[in-house]
Amino acid sequence: MGSSRRLVLVANDPRFAAMVQGHLQRAIQLTVPVVRCEDVPNLLTPETDGDLLLLASEPSDAAAIETVVRETKVQHLPAVLSLLESDAARASGKLDCLNAYLSDRFAWPHHSRELTAWAHRAFAPGTPFADPAAEGTPETIRRRLINHTPSLTTMVEQLCIAAAHDVTVLIEGETGTGKTFLAKLVHDCSARRANRFMVVACGALSSNLIAAEFFGHARGAFTSADAAKVGKFAAAGEGTILLDEIDTLGMEHQANLLRVIETGEFEPVGSNETQVCRARIVAATNWNLADAVERHSFRRDLYYRLHVISFHLPPLRNRPEDIAPLVRGMVARFGTKYSKRLFGVCPEALRVLEAFPWPGNIRQLENVIQQAVLTSAGNELKLHHLSPQVLNRVEAPGGVAAVPSGFDGTLKQTREATERANILRALEKANQSRTRAAQMLGVSRVTLYKKMKAYKLLKEKDGPFGLPFDELNPRAGSV
């Protein structure tokens, strides 16, 4: 008997799952994989269009099954969802609210023939579900990126190299761009995944205790040292230690890191005993460290030790294609956390969110979505659920048009929000060349200039033909 990942059974009751799996083995000569409800997110991507058969053996299974359906639908994932339930589960009526989101609904064992016919149809050509136990590192990294930050899939090859080798990694990017997420992704895909992932917020450490926090201290090393303490580098064990905001460390404390990064050796404060750090070191910074080196605010020798493999995360305003998947993922997560029955996000809300400049990046977006989910009612996140911070951003440069609170937006407002988001996306893909961006958008350069002026996307020196970002290359053509 073979197996196929085009059809997967989702069940929290192993006995019920075994009965259904056995029936399908006899009926279609294939072993259908079984996963638990909480494992479903690891199977799905925006490309997977296979069938998930959700098994409800008891009324108590309803909450977990509803979560799977809601999170799959709110994220616009193409997996086809069907339900197979026992008499007890069906009689409870707890899953009747899902009828609009299910492809098929069967009763066990009364619909066994219909289930067999349906299973035959489920093996049509398409993209199978992921198999986390069998997939390689590139597939795992790509799956985790494409679900929420598709613009970062260009980093897959470098991330694979970083995960495979025990070298220091430097991640640069504005605050809130996802540096911790990227560091955790490297850790999770490395041989150290079973060990600890420790984040050290360097900017939050007291300057006179940084050495003791990093390396620990012996009893009596200073006035308040009543007992010996293990430092961060020792506590990380054989896992990964992320030194977040490393740029906030003073020059003296930067010097303390040189030896431990190069050789792994250090001594706790007040001790002559040399210890060895066995953890992988990743550093994150909100600033460009190369510029900091030139300004003499960051040690050049430390920079070279950190800069073995490096990643730069662009701000969210330059990654508009990430906003929709991020928003849907956050709505799914917060909807589950706050027991909200949200199955979708209205297009108008997404357009306004895509047009917002997000100075606080993903962290700010997360706060806005959390607040919107908390105030939402109904099955869809609407425009009026968004905070005034987003809806009324009129005066700020590059802001979006104001929308009256409690109103889903006029046609003019939604059209303007869409146009602005498309212009930003085209400029990003064209490397800020307005000639090429105009070609992508199918308009003249003058029309593009007028639109950019209307949406406050121009700098003071910009003019319709004095285009500072354009390389006036005759091969680019005219529009």
UniProtKB/TrEMBL annotation:
<keyword id="KW-0805">Transcription regulation</keyword>
<keyword id="KW-0547">Nucleotide-binding</keyword>
<dbReference type="InterPro" id="IPR003593">
    <property type="entry name" value="AAA+_ATPase"/>
</dbReference>
<dbReference type="GO" id="GO:0005524">
    <property type="term" value="F:ATP binding"/>
</dbReference>
<dbReference type="InterPro" id="IPR058031">
    <property type="entry name" value="AAA_lid_NorR"/>
</dbReference>
<dbReference type="InterPro" id="IPR025944">
    <property type="entry name" value="Sigma_54_int_dom_CS"/>
</dbReference>
<feature type="domain" description="Sigma-54 factor interaction">
    <location>
        <begin position="145"/>
        <end position="374"/>
    </location>
</feature>
<dbReference type="GO" id="GO:0006355">
    <property type="term" value="P:regulation of DNA-templated transcription"/>
</dbReference>
<dbReference type="InterPro" id="IPR025662">
    <property type="entry name" value="Sigma_54_int_dom_ATP-bd_1"/>
</dbReference>
<protein>
    <submittedName>
        <fullName>Fis family transcriptional regulator</fullName>
    </submittedName>
</protein>
<dbReference type="GO" id="GO:0043565">
    <property type="term" value="F:sequence-specific DNA binding"/>
</dbReference>
<dbReference type="Pfam" id="PF02954">
    <property type="entry name" value="HTH_8"/>
</dbReference>
<dbReference type="InterPro" id="IPR027417">
    <property type="entry name" value="P-loop_NTPase"/>
</dbReference>
<dbReference type="Pfam" id="PF00158">
    <property type="entry name" value="Sigma54_activat"/>
</dbReference>
<dbReference type="InterPro" id="IPR009057">
    <property type="entry name" value="Homeodomain-like_sf"/>
</dbReference>
<dbReference type="InterPro" id="IPR002197">
    <property type="entry name" value="HTH_Fis"/>
</dbReference>
<dbReference type="Pfam" id="PF25601">
    <property type="entry name" value="AAA_lid_14"/>
</dbReference>
<keyword id="KW-0067">ATP-binding</keyword>
<keyword id="KW-0804">Transcription</keyword>
<dbReference type="InterPro" id="IPR002078">
    <property type="entry name" value="Sigma_54_int"/>
</dbReference>
